[in-house]
Design brief:
This protein has 195 residues and is an alpha+beta fold. It contains six helices and eight strands.
């Protein structure tokens, strides 16, 4: 997909977002390589006050030990708001009462799904590495994961598919982000191999 910038020249969405390519450990951008760590959320509504304070101290320790780390939160499933708006608008113009009834049921179904998933969030810690060699990035990657884990958080370094899915949800594109091609439109190219 291409978009025209203010100067009228064509730019890809990838260019506009500053994403260059996936690397062995993360995602290379115009501002360095990003390393992603998925951290499982803790349901604090079932914890005692002492346990909540302990979790806060643990998070503060992670943030003070790795001051450049960034935290990203997004829904762990896609949002159905556009679909629900469409169904509402469509039912407003539908003359057939049976079709209107089906549209209403579809909207209720989406409401129920969204309600079940409303509290489902996913969290990622993101570490930005600038101007570093591959072995330096590897060292930082392991150190960050160790620090987060030592503070009692369930952490997993995100692989390419995990990052694609996370970004797809973050940019409100798709729940199946891991299936998005690395190069936009590559799935439509037919490549003939010479033997």
């Amino acid at each position: 997909m291409s978009i025209f910038d203010a100067m009228g020249s064509r730019r890809s969405v990838q260019d506009l977002l500053g994403i260059k390519r996936f690397t062995s450990y993360g995602l290379l951008t115009n501002n360095g390589e990003l390393l992603f760590y998925q951290v499982n959320p803790v349901n604090i509504s079932v914890l005692s006050q002492v346990s909540i304070e302990s979790k806060i101290r643990q998070l503060m320790h992670v943030l003070s030990t790795i001051p450049n780390i960034e935290i990203v939160c997004t829904d762990s499933s896609e949002c159905f708001d556009d679909n629900k708006i469409y169904l509402t608008e469509r039912s407003n113009y539908e003359m057939n009462p049976q079709i209107r009834s089906l549209l209403k049921k579809d909207k209720e179904f989406l409401d129920n799904i969204q309600l079940e998933m409303a509290t489902a969030r996913q969290f990622a810690f993101v570490m930005r590495c600038k101007n570093l060699k591959l072995e330096q990035v590897f060292g930082i990657m392991n150190r960050v994961e160790k620090v987060i884990s030592e503070q009692g958080f369930e952490v997993k370094r995100m692989a390419k598919e995990d990052i694609k899915r996370f970004l797809a949800l973050y940019f409100d594109a798709s729940y199946n982000g891991e299936h998005i091609p690395d190069v936009d439109g590559a799935q439509f190219l037919e490549i003939e191999y010479e033997e």
